[in-house]
Amino acid sequence: MKKASVFNIRDLSIGFQSRHHRHLLFENINAEAMPGEFIALIGQNGIGKSTLLKTLMHILKPLSGHIELNQKPLSKYNRLERSHEMGFVSTEIVMAGHLSVENLVSLGRIPHTNWFGHLASMDRDKIEWALTTTKLDHIRHKNIGEISDGERQRTMIARSVAQDTRILILDEPTAFLDLPSRFEMLNLLKNLAKEEGKTIIFSTHDLNLVLHEVDKIWMMAGDQFRQGAPEDLMINDALTHLFPQEWMKISSSDGRFIFPRKFSQTIQLDSTRELLYWTQNALERKGFQVTHEKNMGLKVRAASDQDGYFWKLYRTDRTSTVVYRTLYDLLNAICNG
């Protein structure tokens, strides 16, 4: 039996509405989010990703269309009810240098406390759980102004984790983080979905990171909204709509970003499996079209021996062969004759 959706979005139009002006950003959005799904929202800058997330949070009202949260119109929830269902982490820098990490995480329990903000034992258990889950326990007493950008971002996520909602919505959670921190953040969010059963929806530009990890992609490209498993979007070439530029493409076979290349010469490659990909990549980057069939011009053999990896270069106009221990040296030899 199919589970009921957490979000059901139909014919949604988003943007900004004032008394005298209606600014439409995107329309005809149809999507759904299921319990425990890990969903990445992708699209070019300015297309309306943040606006969509804020509309799902009811921070902004839809221009038209329907959003159902747990089979109930989102507009029928009051603010407290929404805070019990959804947590939100924005890209805005938190100016709370006087608060400790633990204090800021504790604010996530506000929707569950009494009028005086008294923390019950259950609230403290949730705070401890949030600090442990996000690996912040060791800096719990540090002030927000004393920690790194990555730690500050994890603190904001921990606050929403302490809120203990079934849905967590994040706007660019990996923005401004270095590569290891991006992987760590993505792994944290994936574990929250997989192990805690939370529905995670986050916007990102890190396409390389999400292609192999998320359950579903929501894509805003051109004037069309698409959703599906990453593999489905790749197989159907849907992701190519993200890159209208002729000079940039994404390979539908493996998700690699590639620049169109002009090949000036053909080279034969005979390689072991472990060296094949990177050797071919290096040769093609330098303008050589790689073939695995016999060629009368140039040939490279890539393999390994007791001393490590080696690349042996054969030229039909020379009787001797030369062995190189790095691809860098091989490329220099080929290109410089």
Give the overall shape, derived from the CA principal axes.
Answer: elongated
Helix/strand structural class = alpha/beta
CATH superfamily of the largest domain: P-loop containing nucleotide triphosphate hydrolases
Indicate the CATH architecture of the largest domain. 3-Layer(aba) Sandwich
The amount of helix comes to 25-40%
CATH class of the largest domain: Alpha Beta
- Number of structural units classed as domains: 2
Strand line-up across the major sheet = 6-7-8-3-9-10
Helices and strands, in N-to-C order?
Answer: EEEHEEHEHHHEHEHEEHEEEHEEEEH
Secondary structure tally: strands: 17
Q: Rg to the nearest angstrom?
A: 26 Å
What is the terminal separation in angstroms?
A: 66 Å
Number of helices: 10
Portion in beta strands: 25-35%
The CATH topology name of the largest domain reads Rossmann fold
- Overall mean confidence score, pLDDT: 88
Low-confidence residue ranges: none
State the major sheet.
6 strands, mixed
Question: What layout of secondary structure does this protein have?
Answer:
Blueprint: E1 7-17, E2 22-33, E3 38-43, H1 49-56, E4 64-69, E5 72-73, H2 79-85, E6 86-89, H3 101-106, H4 121-133, H5 149-163, E7 167-170, H6 179-196, E8 199-203, H7 207-210, E9 216-221, E10 224-228, H8 230-235, E11 249-250, E12 257-258, E13 265-271, H9 273-285, E14 288-291, E15 298-305, E16 308-315, E17 322-324, H10 327-335
Parallel strand pairs: 3-8, 3-9, 6-7, 7-8, 13-14, 13-15
Antiparallel strand pairs: 1-2, 1-4, 4-5, 9-10, 11-12, 15-16, 16-17
Helix pairs in contact: 4-5
